[in-house]
Amino acid sequence: MDFTLNEWVQLAGDGSIADAAVKQQAEETGMTEDEVRDIMRSHLACMKEAVHTGLDEKLRSVSGLSGGQAALFFKRLEEGNLLCGRLLGKAEVYAMATAECNACMGKIVAAPTAGACGILPGSILAMMEENGATAEQAVEALFVAAAVGQSIATQASISGAEGGCQAECGSAAAMAAAALVYLQGGDPRQCVDAAAFAIMNLLGLVCDPVGGLVEVPCVYRNVGSCGVAFTAADMVLSGIRCPIAPDEVLLAMKEVGDALPSSLRETGDGGCAACPSVRARLHLNTL
After folding, report:
1. pTM score, whole prediction
2. Is the per-residue pLDDT at 287 higher than 60?
């Protein structure tokens, strides 16, 4: 099941990318469409549980670099003090909680990867709790996101080791942006335009995990990428069209990823990973 973004729009026709994705998955696996949807419902349930786990104030990773920070973030949200408001604020908090759950060896949904696991769940769950999206609408939005993720994976990359963090958090932000547009009644073309805007705004993002761990700066990039997803969705829903063909943006993403030096592709040798302060802290925590 390898389709470009434009082909997903064509497959959707007058319907939705969600329905097209369910149909294609059922045909490929031999399952019924109901069975395919049930699997996605289980993914949504796992996303909710990951957030719950990640909000535990006592949570700590083995390295000591992560854990407990989402709880602090959530407290500020509940106090009504987040500058970005409650909808985006909750998406960001939930993204951090999911990413910290992952860093602390909890169960998450790779969306599309473990390093970028918080962006899509955070966005979807916030829309459910703050914007009235139903569970079934959320499941459909996840299928839209999955279709976008498939196009990125087959035309560019979702691997930080191959394409930098633009391939992980960038891909996740694109998936979330498309899902958000869908939840707001956008059509298939608007969904892929939003995905392209998100990629465009994270093009060139490097992958530089401190100590080779999916914690710093990964956890924080999950938070920031939610803002990119919501911004991309808002632009499209305002009637702004992406001036570049969405699939061409994916090809540009691949070209940029290929051009990144190895030190900025998950090796832990450059960028934030090379900063003395975090290297020293990690060393002390492992003594």
Report:
1. 0.97
2. no
